Amino acid sequence: MYLKMKEIISKAMNSGMDFTRGSTIKSFLNRMDIDPDVYDRVYIFLKNSAFKNSFSRVPFEERIVLLPHCMRDVTKCKAEFTDHGYLCSECGSCSIGDIKKMADGLGYNGVYVIPGGSMARKIMEELKPTAIVGVACFMELAENMEQVVVFNIIPQGIPLSKDGCKDTTVDLYEVETILRQR
To answer: 50 φ, ψ to 5°?
Structure first.
């Protein structure tokens, strides 16, 4: 699957098409007879590729991180719910604290653990970050990466490695790699 994905992305990037809009990518994938179930995965990889250089030029302090609340261990989490989502107390019950430490150490403008897209929009409207790192399941990530264009925000998306709306996980190495992009 990974090699097939690399081949698709390579063809797409070499086509000269503007892949900042999901409709363009969907049209491209339809012409290549790509399975519609693969659309979100390819879209995220293409969007990340298209914005990688721009994202890398944004200072850390102009970036934020949005994490899904489903990464929390709800039985142990000590986070307080606020107007901007859950405020991680770094209790160690999940990987959110590790991601927060990484981002804070680099000087990011905040890590927000949110329950959904409406809170993401609220945060983007209020904080007006230049760039955003988002973590979510493929479907949510694709939808949200499409929406950030409206806010003129440069995105990088990281799909969950285990999704399912509860006890989800993400590859911390992949998160750190994207957080450190310069």
So the answer is: -65, -30
Written as one letter, the residue type at 169 is: T
Asked whether 17 and 42 are in contact (CB, 8 A), the reply is no
Around Cβ 173, how many Cβ atoms within 10 Å? 8
Which amino acid makes up residue 139? M
pTM comes to 0.84
Asked whether the predicted pLDDT for residue 175 surpasses 90, the reply is: yes
Instruction: Give yes or no for residue 22 having a pLDDT over 90.
Output: no
| CA–CA distance, 69 with 135 (Å, rounded to integer) | 10
Domain count, the chain: 1
d(CA 88, CA 103): 13
Distance, in Å, from the CA atom of 46 to the CA atom of 36, rounded to the nearest integer, reads: 15
pLDDT per residue over 89-112, tens digit each?
999 999 999 999 999 999 999 999
Task: Report how far residue 51's alpha carbon sits from residue 71's, in angstroms, rounded to the nearest whole number.
Answer: 26
Residue 22 sits at the vertex; the CA angle it makes with 42 and 118, to the nearest 5 degrees, is 105
What is the rounded distance in angstroms from the CA atom of residue 64 to the CA atom of residue 112? 8
- Using CA atoms, how far apart are residues 82 and 79, in angstroms rounded to an integer? 9
**Pairing between strand 80-82 and 85-87?**
antiparallel
Structural domain containing residue 114:
2-179
Amino acid 136: pLDDT: 93
